[in-house]
Design brief:
Blueprint (H helix, E strand, L loop, with lengths): L10 H27 L7 H12 L17 H24 L1 H5 L3 H10 L2 H10 L12 H30 L1
């Protein structure tokens, strides 16, 4: 049964993008959970929420986000932001590839977009949170860059798997 059949021509691609973004982000989260289980440091989503909370108050950059004043509901805000950005990145992929890609996805465009999304943490989030461009102010910048690149590659794989799964279900 095709859950998208009853949607309007405008709502269908929006629903597909949202589903792809949520599922791809969930794939990345499973990856991050696996890393945590292996004692590999991963992102604290409360810090994303803290940054977004301060951003809403006009503060963009911090010397160290961990030292910034906590924001009420920062963990939930961080998770919400994480999934909203995942949906936005899925939208970027569909905008670049078109709706034909959604109906018949291929791996390479999804991986390319996943890898390209590493620009967000390297050039926006990390500098704004006080860790420098591409984690340059951290004790192990190259290790952190590699982790970000791998994490976003997993997100790219998730974009493909989500789109392929949805395409299979709706056939």
């Amino acid at each position: 049964m095709n859950p998208f059949l009853s949607l309007t021509p405008i709502a269908e691609p929006i629903a597909r993008v949202a589903a792809i973004g949520v599922l791809a982000t969930a794939v990345m989260d499973v990856w991050l959970l696996l890393l945590q289980r292996l004692n590999v440091p991963t992102l604290n989503f409360a810090f994303i929420g803290r940054w977004v909370g301060h951003l809403a108050r006009g503060r963009v950059a911090h010397a160290a986000i961990a030292q910034a004043a906590p924001v009420r509901g920062e963990l939930a805000l961080g998770w919400l932001t994480h999934y909203a950005v995942g949906i936005a990145f899925a939208g970027l992929l569909v905008a670049a590839q078109g709706l034909d890609w959604v109906r018949s996805p291929s791996l390479l465009p999804a991986l390319c977009v996943g890898v390209a999304t590493v620009a967000a943490p390297w050039f926006v989030m990390q500098p704004a949170m006080g860790t420098g461009i591409a984690a340059s102010k951290t004790p192990t910048p190259w290790r952190n860059r590699a982790r970000s690149l791998v994490n976003h590659s997993v997100f790219g794989l998730g974009l493909y798997l989500a789109a392929a799964g949805i395409a299979w279900v709706v056939r």
